[in-house]
Design brief:
single chain; 244 residues; Rossmann fold
């Protein structure tokens, strides 16, 4: 049983910081060459991968135009990690069509089109592959004031399952990881609010916020031969939040 992916070609979207950066470093440490993709420079992530003894390069990929992003996907990928995502907040009765479309395009349509292109390339080459989509606790819960984000993450879970059904027989295993509350820039405001921070910690059985590396470990595992019979799964990495 191997937990190595030496020689694999991997691409991680939204790899410039936070969870995406940690995933890129984790895959590089496991032996993959990682293409760190983002709207902004991923030079820091490339340097982190190399400092960890891995191999990496960077690529500009703007998922606001899903079709154009899919066109840029390299043909020789073995691993695709759809991590990039955006969020817009407003009461549902006030939520704008523009905010709905922006989030759905980046979080769901881009995931569909990148997975589709990846699978087409892999099947044309007769090559097996791994896809890991980053879902959310809001793939299972409703949340408040984030209708498009919630819809998109429910959709990511659904796409993960249908792709697994269609592509497993062709050697393409598709799974998702659903992060809980992770200490990143996106959650800094929550962690800086003493009341909100404590309320969140009180709900997490593990008693702490997750680290980006906690997500990276789960994603990397799903890309290794040790996970070769896992597909269609949505793995919660949430310190027990959903079990509470």
């Amino acid at each position: 049983m191997s937990f190595r992916i030496d020689g694999a070609q991997a691409l991680v979207t939204g790899a410039n910081t936070g969870i995406g950066q940690a995933i890129a470093v984790g895959l590089a440490q496991a032996g993959a060459h990682v293409i760190c993709a983002g709207r902004r420079s991923c030079a820091d992530t490339v340097a982190a991968c190399q400092s960890a003894g891995g191999s990496a390069s960077e690529m500009v990929l703007d998922l606001a135009d899903p079709a154009a992003a899919a066109e840029k996907l390299p043909e020789d990928l073995d691993i695709l990690v759809n991590n990039a995502g955006i969020i817009r907040r407003a009461d549902s009765v006030e939520f704008s069509e523009a905010d709905w479309d922006d989030v759905m395009d980046t979080n769901l349509k881009a995931v569909f089109m990148l997975c589709q292109r990846f699978a087409r390339n892999a099947q044309a080459a007769g090559r097996a592959g791994r896809i890991v989509n980053i879902a959310s606790l809001l793939s299972f819960q409703g949340g408040i004031r984030v209708p498009s984000y919630t819809a998109s993450k429910h959709g990511v879970a659904g796409l993960t399952k249908i792709f697994a059904n269609e592509w497993a027989a062709k050697g393409i295993m598709v799974n998702a990881v659903a992060p809980g509350y992770i200490a990143t820039n996106n959650t800094e405001a929550l962690r800086n609010d003493p009341d909100r921070n404590q309320a969140i910690l009180d709900r997490i059985p593990a008693g702490r916020w997750g680290a980006p590396e906690d997500i990276a470990g789960a994603v990397t595992f799903l890309c290794t031969p040790a996970a070769k019979y896992i597909t269609g799964a949505v793995l919660n990495v949430d310190g027990g939040w959903l079990a509470r």
